[in-house]
Known about the structure:
Helix content is 67%, strand content 0%. It is mostly helical. The longest helix is centred in the middle third of the chain and has 25 residues, at 30-54.
Amino acid sequence: MKNKEIMSINKNITTFSDHLDAQYGKKGAETRKQYEEGFESFKLGVMIHELRKEQGMTQEQLAIKCGTTKTYISKIENHASDIRLSTLMRIIREGFGRQLRVSFDI
C-alpha cells in the first residue's frame, strides 16, 4: 500500500475513546460517568465469575464460603447488584483466599 492509501484508511478509523465521546459525552459528562460506573461494575462481576470458575466452585459453594447467598453472587456476576466494599473484601478473602488491592487514577 502507498502512503496516501494508508492515510486515507486511517482517517476513517474511529478510536474507542472517540466512540465513547460520541456515544456518552466527554469525560466528566453525567452520561459518561454513568457509563464508566456501569463498566466498572461489569468488570468486577466478570472478575469474580472468572476467579470462581478458575477455582472450580459453583455460585452456591462460593456463597457458603463467604457467608452470603447464591442469589447475591449471581447478581454480582450478572451486574445486577451494587456491592459494598466490605462484602467484596469478604468474598475475595474468605471465598477465594486472596487479598483485595485497590488503586486510584489520580
